[in-house]
Amino acid sequence: MRSIRGFLIGPPLPTQRLGDERLDKLRAMAALSPDALSSIAYANQEIYLGLAVAGAAGLVLSWKIGLVIVILLVIVAISYSQTIEAYPSGGGSYTVARENLGQYPGLIAAASLLIDYVLTAAVSLTAGVAAIASAFPDLWPYRTALALVLLVIITLTNLRGIRETGTVIAIPVYLFIGCYVLMLLVGLVRAAIEGPGSLEAVAPPATHSLTLFLVMHTFASGCTALTGVEAISNGVRLFKKPEARNARQTLAAMALLMVFMFLGSVSLTQFFGIVPQTNETILSALARHILGTNAAYYVVQASTLLILAVAANTSFAGFPGVASILARDGYLPRQLSFLGDRLVFTNGMLLLAGLTAVLIVLFGGDSHALIPLFAVGVFLAFSLSQSGMVIHWLHERGPGWRLKAAVNGTGAVATAITLVVVAVAKFLDGAWIVVVLIPLLVLMFRAIDRHYIEIRRELALNDAFPPVSTTPPPPPRVVVPISGVHRGTVLALHYARSISDRVTAVYVEINPGDADRIRAAWETWGMGVPLVIVPSPYRSIVWPFLDFLDRYDREANDGHLASVILPEFIPAKWWELLLHNQTASLIRFALFYRRRRFGKVRAIIDIPLHLRK
Amino acid sequence: MRSIRGFLIGPPLPTQRLGDERLDKLRAMAALSPDALSSIAYANQEIYLGLAVAGAAGLVLSWKIGLVIVILLVIVAISYSQTIEAYPSGGGSYTVARENLGQYPGLIAAASLLIDYVLTAAVSLTAGVAAIASAFPDLWPYRTALALVLLVIITLTNLRGIRETGTVIAIPVYLFIGCYVLMLLVGLVRAAIEGPGSLEAVAPPATHSLTLFLVMHTFASGCTALTGVEAISNGVRLFKKPEARNARQTLAAMALLMVFMFLGSVSLTQFFGIVPQTNETILSALARHILGTNAAYYVVQASTLLILAVAANTSFAGFPGVASILARDGYLPRQLSFLGDRLVFTNGMLLLAGLTAVLIVLFGGDSHALIPLFAVGVFLAFSLSQSGMVIHWLHERGPGWRLKAAVNGTGAVATAITLVVVAVAKFLDGAWIVVVLIPLLVLMFRAIDRHYIEIRRELALNDAFPPVSTTPPPPPRVVVPISGVHRGTVLALHYARSISDRVTAVYVEINPGDADRIRAAWETWGMGVPLVIVPSPYRSIVWPFLDFLDRYDREANDGHLASVILPEFIPAKWWELLLHNQTASLIRFALFYRRRRFGKVRAIIDIPLHLRK
Q1: Which among B35, B248, B496, B507 would be 20 to 30 A from A21, CA to CA?
Q2: Residue A322: which of A345, A356, A350 has the closest Cα?
């Protein structure tokens, strides 16, 4: 077990190495940006599909819609840059909304973030696999399985730890950025030489008129380009010192790249008048036009596939971080805040992997069905986070607070408007699922929080608790249920007599007459311990035994519950457990979960009996 | 929990009612015969499909092949009638083969029987659902799910107990028998009036020549008519007294019905020169010819569907019985021999239901793929059982032993020849799976047997065991791992001090510096118990604690292992368990399964702490 684990995810790392596991800016960009960068690929496609139904008259709007989205992107990026400055320990939407707007806005932001991380992982993996499967149609029937295999690989990579992940991921990220930027530069040169193409000549015939709703719907679809922008501000603590400055510079570089790549590709597509063939993405058509169908084209396509596959990785940096902060605050199970032995939040990663797997299986590996769920959570979190920043600056009133509040205010208003557009335009396509899910998650967070508060209250030691005495309490009464007279019974009796002088053995008689045999053997091996025979007309062992216990405690009437000693066979091979009837486990389960006695303790003593073979 | 259970399968029944839960002959026939009777339906179809490829020249052989199968059926029925006489306590192939031929032939027969019971359940359910789904094509995509739903219904019915099952099942069985016999009688009258039809005029054109292999293959397929004949001899103990006589009479009645229904339908089909339409069974074509397409025809078809659905029920009477006998002999887990509180072998039924569900899912609800696996196990069990009976009579030499041995000898030879024909003709169609599976099962039986023998050896009390002393042993050393200082810790300490004066508390320090806080609280609440701080640089709790235990035991050097007290929170709602990190469970698991110390006992004491909310 330990050695397989060691091979897959590496040896344990000591806590003092925590400071080492930080990322320089290049690696941090590779770890945190693939979601944001790769989303450009499908945002492009969504804009084309959204406008193409209105024919050439629609497609000429591409550039303008792209420009609006880019302006939104710049606003959001600047806003998050201010967040990093104000929250250098890794703010993120949850922290900002909670500290400035209160508990519920914070929890809503947190729910949005968690949902979006899972969606990012699921959409990126299935989109990547669908692209691979389009190139190699034989793989098509196995695309759910392939997405799950990719998920396992990415999960293992992340369980190894952050720095090693950054190194592995860097190659496809910079390959993608390099290919894309080069291609667009070549495209600009060609555009200057060739001049514009004509959309009217090639555009598909219009099937819808160009309504405002159609434009809004296209804008909402295109806004998926913004998913992942917040990843850097959530991951500030992954950066090398000075964390805040490094994070801001990385965010600025990423935003610039996004603006150039997104606006460049949308504009060139429209300028050249490009329309894709059947079963081709608009991005592929653009690359084919600029580069021709040659090796360079295939490299661009391959890098697109790769970045989609690693975009899922952003979630593995983001989800466990947000979950650990929530867990630390008591809104998620505490285990999510434990650092694993590779200094990463192992439990959070496993939870993310599990949820992503469920989503992939439920949606049959189809990314298209998942995309409409996407933007609601993203813009809800954006909007809450930036509203929170406005309040933050109003409270703080540091140098330049008016300008800063105005910047974040603009961000809050812009993203709030976008949120409404997205939720309305995409409601029936799937956004409703997220609209339902977010309040449910918030309710869950609150229920978990209440549970932890209640437990702290119940466990607290105070003066009302019985005073500590220095004389030890009297030994407990001890009951030993026996299944026969054998070595296990004798060992249990030995133990019982070592801790108490009030020991009773109990035999539940299922087949009438069996007790005689037991009584005879008891003469020899019983060590003078009294033996009680309990008949069981319905052939159950557990219930008659529990009834006996109740009776015995009632008759003793000493304010305590008797301890129960359970001899248990532990076979040498795991499958042999199936050959034993687990009565001890059933009794323990029943005592733990069926018979609750508040304030009274019934100790259950397991005597494990290891079998040699 | 108990009330849902009570609603679904009824209240517990006391052991003394065991004698009551017996079946009269009519109910026993209903409970034990549907497999045998319903197999006629698909055997007919298999004979038609086998011969039709050779055209009219092939189809004229139907009657002769049917006759050979009926002769085989009569031989097998008479042989089993002799088995019931010799083994009135419910022989079955396993008991007969084991007692007379030895362990391995017995186990081979048992493996064959168990496989066939599972196949019967899976084939009958999927065939029944396929028939329903053919009538209502909308159901087709859900046929796996429908088969599973039927399986659940039948399982629940059987868990209620035998007699109630017999009543529920009787209606479709006698409906089927009544419809079928009436239809054949009408057919005979019409045959006498109308005279023969002409096969040549309607038979499909021959695509294969009429080879010996084709005839053999058809015969092998038709032999599926014999599946289920042995059910009555396995279920003798279900009959009212006198069990043996009642069982023999029921077997004779069932065999006569099978002969009449099978030979009658095959002969009439050939006599009238009937050929089915596309997507129609030969049985449906016969019914349509005799009755016309009217209400009577639909009733016959519906009764065919019903009997297929309840044929699975035979397995629920047979499988748990055989499994319980094997379990009693130590070849299967003992739990399979326990009578449940409704006086049926609950565990055996659940195992059968589970295996059947797996088979249905694996074969995608397609009965056609399952049928070729069928006959090998059946005829292997027949042949072994009857060989065993020959030896039985040779040993016993009671009145008429020569004749009896000759009868069973004929049965043994006839079924052995059939076995070879079936295995060869159907090998590639799927019989190979069973040929591989049977030896694997036999190996499993042996491994389980060895395990139980070894355990009895290890648990046996004998003079070599340390003598029983009357003075109690000294109290154990006790170790209490603590996660903090709270009520749970104090209760665990109280208990520890009540059973021993040598108590040590251990705190595993994950975050450097936490121990100071614990030490301060220990001053107030520690009751003078020494506290040991164990550092954990790799943030694991379990391994440092286990290392401490080893060190502590080594230093004490008293030949014993310290007891471990584990305080465990038991939350009020099950899902709240997910909010606690289960360190106690992990430690117990590690002590049980990772650190085996033969001959030494480390007691593990659970202190359950029930939380109010």
Answers
A1: B507
A2: A345
Q: pTM for the whole thing? A: 0.71
C-alpha A232/C-alpha A166 separation (Å) is: 14
Q: What is the mean pLDDT of each run of 10 residues along chain B (613 residues)?
A: 57 58 82 84 82 84 91 91 82 81 90 91 82 66 84 86 65 90 92 82 80 87 86 82 88 93 90 76 82 83 81 82 88 82 78 91 77 84 90 88 90 91 84 91 93 86 65 90 88 92 92 87 88 87 90 89 88 73 80 70 88 71
Structure tokens at A595: 């018979």
In angstroms, the CA A575 to CA A573 distance is: 6
Q: How far apart are CA B65 and CA B418, in angstroms?
A: 13
Residues of B in contact with A587 (CB under 8 A): none
Q: How far is residue B57's CA from residue B420's CA, in Å, rounded to a whole number?
A: 26
> Which residues make Cβ contacts (< 8 Å) with residue A354, sequence separation at least 6?
none
Residue spans of alpha helices (H) in A87-142: 92-101, 103-135
Tell me which chain B residue has its CA closest to the CA of residue A453. Answer: B613
Is any Cβ of chain A less than 8 angstroms from the Cβ of B592? yes
In whole angstroms, what is the distance from residue A375 CA to residue A424 CA? Answer: 11
Interchain contact B2–A (C-beta under 8 A): no
Residue B404 near residue B114 (C-beta atoms within 8 A): no
By the 10 Å C-beta count (0-12 exposed, 13-18 middle, 19+ buried), B120 is classed as buried
Choose among B452, B537, B610: nearest Cβ to A596.
B610
Contact B491 A601 (CB under 8 A): yes
- Residue at B398: amino acid letter: G
CB neighbour list of residue B583: distance below 8 Å, 6 or more residues apart: B481, B483, B541, B542
Gap from B594 CA to chain A (nearest CA, Å): 10
Which of A473, A488, A606 has the CB atom closest to B494's CB atom? A473
Q: Could you report the predicted ipTM of this complex, rounded to two decimals? A: 0.72
**Nearest by CB to B612, which of A13, A598, A605?**
A598
Contacts of residue B335 in chain A, CB cutoff 8 Å? 581
